Amino acid sequence: MAPKLFEPLQIRGLTLKNRIVVAPMMQHAAQNGLANHWHLVHLGKFALGGAGLILTESTAVAANARGGQNDLGLWADEQVPALRSVVDFVHDSGSLMGVQLGHAGRKAGTRPLWEGGTPLSVEEMQAIDPNWVRMGPSDLMPAPGWSHPQVMSIQDIDRVVEEFVLATIRAERAGFDVVELHYGHGYLVASFLSRVSNLREDEYGAGLEGRMHLALRIAREVRREWPQHKPLFCRLSCVDGALGGWGMDDTVVLAKALKDVGVDVIDCSSGGLTEQGAALPVARGLGFQVPFAHRVRTEAQVMTQAVGMIVDARQAEAIVRDGQADLIAIAREALKDPYWPLHAQAELAPDPSYQDWPVRHGIWLAKRHPALMAALNSATSR
Question: What pTM was computed for the model?
């Protein structure tokens, strides 16, 4: 039986050559939001490695939407050409390319992980950019050590929605195949969704419907601008980890509503709202978030993407074969092995011709194969 993991999957007018996605990973390597050689090599190598779809790191829809100073951006027309170069290379290498659009909200202004990942002070943010401020639905910090966010007015909300739309238009000009809206990990939209962080009493709070309003409005307006033949993904923290916070029942309701406004795939993650999440930890084991994807797929009747400690070819194959998710996403495992998809294929369906490898690599591996097999057989027979 051919591996389900390597069956093509059609979503709207696009066909992924397999079910493997490289998930977003923050790199903090851009200058003024501009992609550079680092992004070309970082993302391009995953295309050489055989992934069906590659997603950028969370790409800011506005300068003040950045999580870190050196995040990628699509808030300006000048940022399009450099990303177009990355997209073109990925396409030439046989993969599809997606952009994750995000707004950090009250979690804006952090140092890279290798510098501690701690929040910048307000003074440090202002010195970098006077317009770089934290904002959120209510005057609540995500955790001690952060500053209080600016409470967003209706005009602020309208502007953010427009920023997502304009970034989507630029994403089309850059040639991206997929847009993913980042609604997880405690960033702006996630902070509107949770009753822990959203205390508003207007149309953007006061009950589940109000708290979902921003998420659905952005998705609806992005879908209107994003070409109809191209898929729209959405990443959710299916549980946000906070006591009394966003949970799976809420996620199913939102996933159904997102599907109704044109979202095609729910990318199922978890956590990130607040350090209070330590009170409701999601046990981190192999495939620890797969049950979220399975429940959303089953109850919301929408395609899902599973992510989180998916490290083994047979594990990934079982997830898609058993209908737990339509796509599997790898991130850290892709950093460890950029050729993970091709190695997984070799494990599940060995092919000594190496025809699915980049031709400039495969021809050399196929040429070596007979001699390598003979040498290995000789070594084992001693």
Answer: 0.96
